[in-house]
Design goal:
Blueprint lengths: L1 E6 L29 E5 L4 E4 L5 H8 L6 E3 L5 H4 L6 H6 L5 E6 L3 H7 L15 E6 L4 E3 L2 E10 L2 E8 L2 E4 L7 H7 L4 E5 L12 H11 L3 E5 L8 H7 L4 E3 L5 E3 L1
Parallel strand pairs: 3-4, 4-5, 5-6, 10-11, 11-12, 12-13
Antiparallel strand pairs: 1-2, 1-14, 2-3, 7-8, 8-9, 9-10
Length: 254
């Protein structure tokens, strides 16, 4: 299984428009962060986790020519804003609707945002989706055995996804004991770390490090990073040897 971090930034991305801070002015490519998304590739399937506003750019950057499904963590704009851009994949794959694995709570916002794709009078050229509702029940897609794990994201529900020894855990401010129990045994984890300070709907770097440490993971990468977290080169120097900030384009095998 090949994991690629498509985007590793917050809802504003990094650099932030108009910001003159050292991170936003950095020339280090690791400090250039598009909105958070992930790509999973196996022998059988290619799956995106979320499709934010930078989805088109991310697909072009990585040279992706096939997409078999999109898993949605939750309904915030920075995670669904690029769903219209699955159209080329649909058109090039015999006009088959794009499988969309999404929770019952997130689906209404997607239908509102992309109402033209769910209309009874479908506009020619509009994207079409094959909706699969998810909860915490594991499901199989191709050669992936996927375990959705419910998280609290302020007033919303967000879902982490565990696939064997790997887990993708983003956009949450609380993680239950039940969720932690379902993450036991994970060896590789991409988990959010918004910044340095406490936040009402996200965890910070210290909290992310603690979760990864408690789970005893072999390797952890931190994503959904804001410019407040600091420069990648400086942050990585502070972290344990088995942990680092994720960056756009990072790929690794599990």
């Amino acid at each position: 299984m090949l994991i690629t971090v498509l985007g590793s930034g917050t809802s504003q991305g990094v650099p932030v428009i108009g910001c003159q801070c050292p991170v936003c002015q950095s020339t280090d490519p690791r400090d250039k962060r598009t909105r958070t998304s992930l790509l999973i590739r196996t022998d059988q399937v290619t799956v995106a986790v979320d499709a934010g506003p930078d989805f088109r750019q991310q697909m072009l950057r990585e040279g992706i020519s096939r997409l078999d499904a999109v898993f949605i963590t939750h309904e915030h704009k920075d995670h669904i804003g690029g769903l219209d851009d699955v159209r080329p994949f649909i058109f090039n794959q015999d006009n088959r609707p794009m499988p969309l694995f999404v929770s019952e709570t997130a689906l209404p916002e997607i239908k509102r945002e992309f109402s033209y794709a769910f209309s009874d009078h479908l506009y020619p050229g509009a994207p079409t989706y094959e909706v699969h509702l998810i909860d915490e029940t594991p499901f199989t897609f191709g050669d992936l055995y996927v375990e959705p794990i419910r998280l609290k994201h302020f007033t919303l529900t967000s879902y982490a996804f565990r696939i064997g020894r790997f887990a993708y855990v983003t956009d949450f401010n609380e993680i239950s004991d039940a969720a932690l129990a379902r993450l036991q045994g994970v060896e590789y984890m991409v988990i959010e770390a918004l910044g340095r300070r406490n936040h009402y709907s996200h965890i910070n770097l210290k909290q992310a490090v603690q979760i990864a440490t408690d789970l005893g993971v072999r390797k952890a990468w931190f994503t959904h990073c804001s410019h407040h977290i600091g420069k990648a080169v400086d942050v990585n120097a502070e972290l344990p040897d088995n942990m680092m900030l994720a960056y756009d384009g990072l790929s690794f095998e599990v």
